[in-house]
Batch of 3 targets.
Target 1
Amino acid sequence: MTEQPPQGPTTDLSAVHLPPDAQQRLTRMRQGTQLFTSDLSVNEFLLVREAGFRPVGLVLGSSVYHVGLQMARWGRNMEMDRLTQAMYHARELAMTRMEAEAHELGADGIVGVRLEIDFKEFGNDLAEFVAVGTAVVGDEPPPTGGSWRNNRGLPFTSDLSGQDFWTLVQAGYAPLGMVMGTCVYHIAHRGPFAALQTMGTNVEIEQYTEALYDARELAMSRMQAEAEALHAEGIVGVQLLSLPHRWGGHTTEFFAIGTAIRPLREDHVIATPQLVLPLTDGGRG
Amino acid sequence: MADAGDELRGVPPVAVDRVRHQRDSGVRGSLLSAPAAAAIRSADLEPVGEVFGCIVITLGWLPGSCGYAYGWNRGGGWGGWSGAWSGGVPGTAGGGIAGGTTRAGGPGLGGPGFRMAPAGWQGGGRGWGGYVTPVVVSGDMTSSRFTWAQPYAEAVEHAIGESHRRMLAEAAALGADGVLGITRQTRSIDGTGHEYSSLGTAVRHVDPRWRREAGKAPWAATLTGEDVAAAASAGYGPAGVAFGYSLALKHEDWQLRQQRGSFSNLEVDGLTELLTAARADARRSLAREARGLGGAGEVVVRDSSLRTFERPCTGEDKDLMAEALFVGTVLVRHPAGPRGSGRTLTVLPLTPPSAPATRRGR
């Protein structure tokens, strides 16, 4: 199936309705009492400052979504397109609301975005999709001219840590936006006859291999398509996750997410790092 | 140093004894790891002792109910509000909080605060319809139908603040200037008592110029020793810990049930609104508290949690609740200015990538 999931966020963020509470809070933040909130760690905050960005506030978008029902054919490999749509649409709602909050703050971008799914106690088919990040404003426009915002006029988004963000900017790249692709796939059950035939032998179960390939390919190509729409040079920090959620063993969501980037200048050099052997235990950042 | 007994008002006698003993013995405890201890030394801080604050409270609800169960949330023959089932999520073309959140009550219907379900939700032809019950946050409870929940919200908020204050009182009695590495814990004892506790390491500035003035509360930070040192090297110092707590309630209404029972994909407006309201209110009170701590403070690093639960209302009906807590450390410019060079040194650690560079493990 080549059909694309719903299109990305609309460009006009001022049309997104924010709850009155959020609007008041954001207006106060914008009116420049210096206080801002962020969920960056101290190190990340300092690095983001050093990269030439000023945090302006924590931004958050949330959507509680009822994921619909879809019956799978027991013995068939198939994409559960209704579930795919749900997972995509709900994430997009959360992301767009977060972007709208950042837009209200006059932000150029959002760093350290976390996109989480939380199944609530309220019911099995209900999940909360949350996007949280820290909105930042660039001290100066990018060296290439233009704006830090992406070609849709949206604040850039990035799920990179402050450390990675710093490194990226140092090396002459800028994030454009988080891109994602998802595919909820039902892997066929094998009939008793097929199972009997392979009993006791070590053979590839082509049906399963094929299903897993298909599903991942779909997710990744959708992510790719989003990056192309942003005119990105590439995608960094891609995670390819398989999330079983709550649909039982044979239905799984394959989710690809990464940060699309563009070059800021021709050369991409970064100072040679010094090697250190920390005397702290490995678990400490 | 002021008399310990004075600063330790409200702290149990056994803790007062321990603090007095700790102060007099000169043995200084700390919860810091060795690297953290070394790090804070670089920021000119030294540990004074570990400090603890705790309060055990009972949590309950006043008798009463919101009364939204009676008639308000049933489908009924409200003529004129029928329309074709749209199947879509209203207002989501731009990804908005679905329509209706600010819509006023329908003509001549309902009391203040009631809203009609957005038109898109009206079922086909036979007068399905219903009211959307409002979301109420703890700040506005007094004038709402959820006054029965107010003592609960107040008790939780008090407990969070009180355990923190008791910990700070111990630190003050030890003559500390601040407390860092604060961790909080909540647990339930036999299901009736709820313990809220805070634990941290009290520290003192080595340089007498930065010592705490008598009568002022010590500063506090949920940051680790390493983080405090990093902040100090960039010229920031912690001013205190701010808490933002909120409880939001909503009676499970017709619209909610409708959306949950559906076979199609859709956003559950009421729940989105509930969780958004809880978080927004908590963030508002966090900012208020942070502003009080830092004046024109500069940074709040924070962590947050959200818990949802439900409580039977009347009959089969339920009240849905969301409890949000945001905790943040307020950092302010330290008068001493940055200690470090201010430039980042790029290093490549020779350790396995167990501590991921990205935030994924956070």
Target 2
Amino acid sequence: MNRRDSIRSLFLGSMAGGLALESCISASEETINEKIWEYQYGRTPEEAARDEKLLATQYFENTEINVITRLASLILPPTTDGTIEDAGVPKFIEFMAKDFPGLQTPIRGGIMWLDNHANRHFDNDFINITEDQQHEILDQIAYPESKGEQKQEVKFFSLMRNLVMTGYFTSAVGIKELGYKGNQPNVWDGVPEDVLKDHGMSYDASWMPKFVDQSKRNDMAEWDEEGNLLS
Amino acid sequence: MEIIENEKKYDVVIVGSGAGGGMATKILSEAGLKVAVIEAGPYFDPANPAQQTQLKWPHESPRRGAGTTRAFGEFDMAYGGWEIEGEPYNQVGDSQFDWFRSRMLGGRTNHWGRISLRFGPRDFKGKDRDGLGENWPISYEDVKPYYDKVDKLIGVFGSKEGMYNEPDGFFLPAPKPRLHELYYKKGAEKSGVKVMPSRLSILTKRINNERGICFYCNQCSRSCSVYGDFSAGSCLIFPAQKSGGQVDLYVNSMVREVTVNDEGKATGVLYINKEDRKEYRITGKVVVLAASACSTARILLNSKSPQHPNGLGNSSNMVGKYVHDSTGSDRMAFVPEMMNRKRYNEDGVGGMHLYSPWWLDNKKLDFPRGYHIEVWGGLGMPSYGTGFDPNSLNKHLGLKVGGYGNGLREDVKKFYGSVMGMSGRGESIANVNNYCEIDPTTVDEFGIPVLRFNYSWSDHERKQARHMHETFEEIIHNMGGVVLGDKPGADKDYGLLNPGRIIHEVGTTRMGSNPKTSVVNEFEQLHDVDNVFVVDAGPFVSQADKNPTWTIMALSWRTSEFIIEELKKQNI
């Protein structure tokens, strides 16, 4: 058994106990196993058990997830950089509704509002009206007033926009599109010269001796009695 | 319930494994003493892949790192937070003290900001300057040799600046500032605010062959898997074990009280093992408390016996009194010149590359003590919350806010890295009316009576916070930035955060030469019981505007040497 398999079997072992206790499980065991295997990082046993429980249940109805997916694609239409499906946005919103139960009613109610509104004006559910008609509805709720009370449907849209945007820009495709370059071992030696120049900045000559000489970073530090670094 | 006795007899029983407990473990065990370390949380090693969050991406988490289970986001390496299930605490009246606890080997040293400042000569003698609070019974000269040793043992980068109250040490070289930090420097210096490289316990250069060198991922708050930053496990406890010290770790063990004999001397501690929920007794010649300022006060107050009816070390009634946290207030700025930035890896070290130490003379101001300014911003890794209100900054450019469609992508990319912030962290005045005490109405899930807090800020702190915001606004203006948010007014205590939010609470077992007005002497030894010592931040008489960790460790080292000498002389 390799390392990955042995961790997987540990995981299954711990989860089997959790499953026995859960009376109402909506997803099949196999699906849960896949979902749990996806998330591997340092969690305490309590945190991992909590996530297992959340991943084993589904909050939104499939019809609601379809509306969430449609709405997310209107907020961020697909481009060659990435789509909201690539970014796992609907799955993320489903998870957050279980993680922060305070999100459940505003989102479920907001979806109902969209359908009611679409039915009243266009004789069909939101998902079934044309894209132009969908835009017409969003135009009414996508621009919050700068002051005063916000209507429920405006707050709902702002909430969905926040979840969609953060879901997208924390995904692999979103991070690539944003251009974040870090989260990897490297050696920092200051702002690139062309960027400094572009911003009219420079490193003070008087500060330069204070900075690390990265060519000597591996030399063991030694000081004189006054604390002057010798190496 | 039967108490389970531990057959082993220890020289020293240490409660807590953070900065103070870790240092005591290292010094005492390396002197050949047999040491037991009792830690309330689980074992933790930053190098353990099963516990590691360093270098993980937000999309490796189903909640993208949101802070549902950990206060600073789920990748932050503190098991605990301001609220812990099963471990409540209460307030007296309308007090709002927030108490952060981290239950794990190494405690809060696993996630802290690594800001490693020495207290200066003035910081030990505050009362001499303004008549407020109390002087320490020791001076900078008493602690300096230990600060020097801590610098060399653990490693801290910084620069020699020759400032009287910001003493220089044995520094590793500092990393170059990032772009937003250069903007800050320009703005601050225009206002006469001193700016200098920060002083963080992160290895920019090799100090030994056991620890790796910083590889600039910016994630010290996740605890470094190559031990490139300081944590009590990686730098104190593991090395103590490796050098052959007799160190037994008892994890998931919640200490309830210190036990005493007929003469009132300590014999060891009682703790609850969280795994079997049974009570255990462990004995030692000396008890060293390092559970954190408030947890130590709680243990002492819960240690009632016929010999110490008011709690251990509490004949003065001073245990729990004078609890004080740093003041804190923050402000954000939008810098239009930093829109549409060129992308490059700007992670750097975990935390700021430069900062401003206190630069003014309080005699000319309407508040008595100073503050320092921390700076944050940059092209950081996206996390839960990135992209919220994606184009609210458009209002400063006369453009439309809100909407939907691919314009939002462009807005997020345009503003990425153009917002930065400043945090003031200041000295508050220790006050006997701010205290924690046992709440007789409530126990935690282990049946141990909990703390309740009574804390309010005074005008000394409020006026200091007002000054912070005036300074922030001036600096932001000088930088060509736009101040975000309204200036907090008197109704909001000028933006002062709740006490406990800065997580620098100190002072609950304060040090002094008079046993009637203090709990420990200058060697952190209880006035009432000579074989009990406190090596966390409880003994701090005042906290300066400096982060307490470096002083906790210097004092713990000094106390540990005293314990070794006293044991040799058979005085304790």
Target 3
Amino acid sequence: MELRTKEMITSMGLYSLLTMVVYQIALSQSGSSFDPRQIAAGLLWLAFLFTSMLGLNRSLVHEQDQGCLEALLLAPVDRPVIFFAKAIGNLVFLLIVEALTIPVFAFLFLQGGGYGGSFWMIPLVLTAGSIGIAGVGTLLATMSVNTKGKDFVLTVLMVPLMYPLLLAAVSATTAAVLGGDGSVEQFWAGMGGIAGYDAIMLLAAYALYEFVIGA
Amino acid sequence: MTEALTTDVALEVRDLSRTFGVRKALNKVDFDLPDGAFLSVFGPNGAGKTTLIKVLTTVTAPSKGTAKVCGLDVVQDAVGLREKIGLISHNPLLYPDLSAEENLQFFAEMYGISEAQDRVRELLVSVELDHRRMDLVRTFSRGMLQRLSIARALLHRPEVLFLDEPYSGLDPHAMDILDGLIAQIRSEHTFVMISHDLDKGLELCSHALILAKGKVVLFDAKENIEAEEFKATYRSTVGMGVA
């Protein structure tokens, strides 16, 4: 359906790219002594977090329209199967948008000092972090879909819950961008945090989805 | 016609309650429905009719009590039960950006139907939409949507069909077509229909149930019901005129 309408990919992709441009404008007067690579990872993950919220808010639109969510709930499959299907779909969209955004990000923020780490680090941390965003986000989007002001509810629930993931992801991504002594250790410490968050939150989402969707 | 089919119990509802916060949408609902019966459920807005259907179709879990459909518990055997039920709602439950055929194919896959292509084609022919099978559902009229919705609900050959105000928003011609489709499949299924139209509901049913404030006010077989008395009971109980 998304292949036909391209609503999510278009809106998420444009939003993410425009955010990069806005960041560039905001940092354009920072002076030559300022190294944007120091904060680039934080900016990148903020852009992905807000972009994911845009997509997550739309991820259940097709199901909401004409009551299709109820039709899915009537199918003879366990509810967690529906959760994982939606979460994997959201993950794929997020990864596509990230793949489009990273070259722009590198062009705007990594030109001065260059990229310090190994190239495999960025795809690894992006994939691991995105799994957490898609998993928790899918659960929260389902919770908020029938509430008044669902966009606001999703944001209020999602940002605090994403805090540990963002800390770990920014730490690992900063290590990947800057490189240097101790960066590999810092990268793996961050990856450990992301992996732990993903495991705990995905298990919680798996356990809670039946209750959330049937409430 | 229904008497010949009434050998087993299709629905077994015991002290069924569903609360939303402090509001009791269903309050100790209790009844049995024989296999092959046609139950019409009446009641004013907020009586708990849609909640009853949602619980019986496993969409919403009950707060207390039990309910069995085709002998399967709505909580313990939910996945197996869903293979035996179909829902036709006032909402078509179809993806507007997919064609009629794509919608049915998608739901056929969800139900794991073998030879889905043939079954989809057969149903599109039976609801007279084969000529529009490649058209996006968002281009369909209300009556066409409802016919396609019936095809979706019948894909997996359910034993019990739930109809949640299926005539809502239909023009007289579309209502006639829906009447014809229900008549075609009447002998093969047990039906549970929510209706605000007392005459239509009583005409179709073998059993009738009035819900008010989540409680069963009246439940009986049609042969024990006198229409005017039933309407008076409905009016007096829910304090509303008959539409």
